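Supplementary Methods. Inverse-folding protocol.

Structures were first reduced to a discrete structure-token string of length 553. This string, shown here, constituted the complete conditioning input.
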């Protein structure tokens, strides 16, 4: 830029110099022309009286001047000429200045000689006797005059060029230096000339806009990273050659990969045929959706092609761990089988006893016992059906009552009072202590939760044991039910909340129940957006903590 400014400034200065040089010469030459005509007029004025009085003899007496003097008769014959013999000269009647003088009293003209590169000025005046006095003056042409002065003008031009170069350099330096010295981080702090201020303001504004855009891009990148990094699903982006462009930590975790895969072929991640087919399908321009197994896990794979301007750039793969869903399907099948089993057992007993009574095959003294057995089996079926109804209602998230304020201490006291008779049969001591805490929830379901946990604490306790209930208020209420019963083995603690699961695999009649109690507790806590915490040691008792959310205001 400095060179361009320098060349431009130098060109402008030299052009102005040449223009001024030409204009000055033209003005001077015009002045010389006017001055020459004026001198001729003055000289003619001085000579005319003497010539009129003495004729041509007068001109012979005066010294010759640098101007050419001629006397021309009214017929055009040259009577006298100071530069040549009059008798040898041609008739001048057709000369412009002579004709004009004879007609108007005076006349003037100029003629240019291309051969001599000279210009001659003529002035003629008519004398009283009818003759014409003509005076001529020759001057060099403008071009000749300029060429004659070329040597000094060349020296002046060189000096002017040097001066112009210096001025152009200084001006270009003054223009460019503030730009070169500008602090791009803080352009508004740059000291510069007034004309550059709008550019500084624009740069400052663009810098701010660029910073805002960069901040926005960085924020979007952070959001994208946060989304992908915190996803439980595996995320993978590949190019059209199946090389890995981007992925999230969940992908490596799901597929048990402990090394980076940036830039590696996608099939290094997993070589399962379904995974390979999903990659190939997406890179062929079609969507893909399928499941495959990896170890003990089951994954669902979604892959889609990515286009830009109708050109395939690569593909995006989403890997979802559906192991839990598959487990739920298994649990659902087990649930169906368990329900069938739990209903079939009492129905078989009822049907057998009824047939014996119908066929009079029961001794009179045993009839009452058979009726009692029928009643127990029917009660067992009713209890099982009620548990299933409650569980189904909670699963659907549609309890019979509307949510309201629930006093946990009051609910706990009601359940303890109802369980006293059951506890006395095993000589178990029940206790309730703590704070008056309230939550927003469903009283019926909260009571079901208390009943099932406390009932289990009594059932699986030893004779003479203890069950302690403690209610703690705070940021969120916590209900602790602690017993010193038989406890739960560590490897079974994750399964006790499954439906129909009972630690007693033989389903003996020692501890009766439907196997749905803790499942109701789990679903009831989920409905209240609460959390269950179980800690137990086999043979040393069990502690269940129910964490309820804070009451809504």
């Amino acid at each position: 830029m400095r060179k361009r400014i320098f060349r431009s400034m130098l060109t402008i200065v030299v052009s102005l110099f040449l223009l001024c040089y030409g204009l000055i010469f033209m003005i001077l030459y015009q002045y010389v022309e006017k001055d020459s005509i004026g001198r001729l007029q003055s000289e003619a004025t001085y000579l005319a009286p003497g010539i009129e009085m003495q004729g041509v003899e007068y001109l012979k007496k005066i010294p010759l001047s640098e101007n050419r003097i001629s006397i021309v008769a009214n017929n055009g014959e040259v009577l006298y000429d100071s530069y040549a013999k009059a008798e040898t000269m041609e008739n001048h009647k057709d000369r412009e200045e002579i004709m004009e003088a004879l007609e108007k009293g005076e006349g003037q003209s100029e003629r240019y000689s291309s051969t001599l590169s000279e210009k001659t000025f003529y002035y003629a005046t008519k004398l009283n006797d009818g003759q014409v006095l003509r005076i001529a003056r020759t001057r060099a042409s403008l071009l000749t005059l300029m060429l004659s002065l070329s040597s000094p003008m060349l020296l002046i031009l060189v000096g002017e060029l040097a001066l112009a170069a210096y001025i152009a350099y200084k001006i270009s330096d003054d223009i460019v230096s503030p730009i070169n010295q500008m602090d791009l981080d803080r352009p508004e702090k740059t000291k510069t000339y007034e004309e550059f201020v709008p550019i500084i303001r624009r740069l400052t504004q663009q810098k701010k806009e660029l910073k805002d855009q960069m901040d926005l891009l960085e924020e979007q990148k952070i959001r994208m990273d946060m989304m992908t990094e915190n996803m439980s699903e595996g995320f993978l982006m590949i190019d059209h050659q199946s090389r890995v462009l981007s992925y999230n930590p969940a992908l490596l975790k799901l597929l048990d990969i402990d090394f980076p895969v940036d830039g590696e072929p996608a099939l290094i991640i997993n070589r399962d045929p379904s995974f390979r087919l999903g990659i190939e399908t997406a890179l062929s321009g079609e969507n893909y959706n399928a499941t495959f197994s990896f170890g003990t896990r089951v994954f669902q794979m979604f892959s889609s092609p990515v286009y830009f301007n109708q050109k395939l750039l690569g593909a995006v793969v989403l890997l979802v761990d559906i192991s839990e869903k598959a487990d739920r399907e298994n649990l659902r099948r087990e649930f169906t089988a368990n329900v069938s089993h739990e209903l079939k057992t009492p129905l078989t007993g009822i049907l057998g006893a009824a047939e014996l009574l119908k066929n009079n095959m029961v001794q009179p003294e045993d009839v009452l016992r058979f009726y009692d057995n029928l009643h127990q089996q029917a009660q067992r079926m009713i209890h099982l059906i009620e548990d299933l109804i409650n569980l189904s209602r909670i699963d659907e998230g549609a309890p019979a009552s509307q949510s309201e304020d629930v006093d946990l201490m009051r609910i706990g006291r009601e359940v303890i009072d109802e369980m006293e008779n059951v506890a006395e049969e095993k000589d178990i001591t029940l206790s309730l202590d703590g704070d008056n805490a309230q939550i927003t929830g469903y009283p019926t379901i909260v009571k079901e939760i208390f009943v099932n946990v406390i009932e289990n604490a009594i059932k699986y306790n030893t004779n003479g044991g203890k069950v302690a209930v403690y209610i703690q208020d705070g940021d969120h209420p916590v209900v602790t039910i602690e017993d010193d019963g038989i406890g739960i083995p560590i490897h079974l603690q994750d399964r006790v909340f499954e439906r129909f699961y009972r630690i007693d695999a033989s389903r003996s009649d020692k501890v009766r129940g439907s196997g749905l109690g803790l499942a109701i507790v789990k679903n009831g806590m989920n409905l209240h957006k609460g959390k269950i915490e179980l800690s137990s040691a086999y043979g040393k008792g069990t502690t269940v903590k129910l964490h309820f959310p804070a009451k809504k205001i």
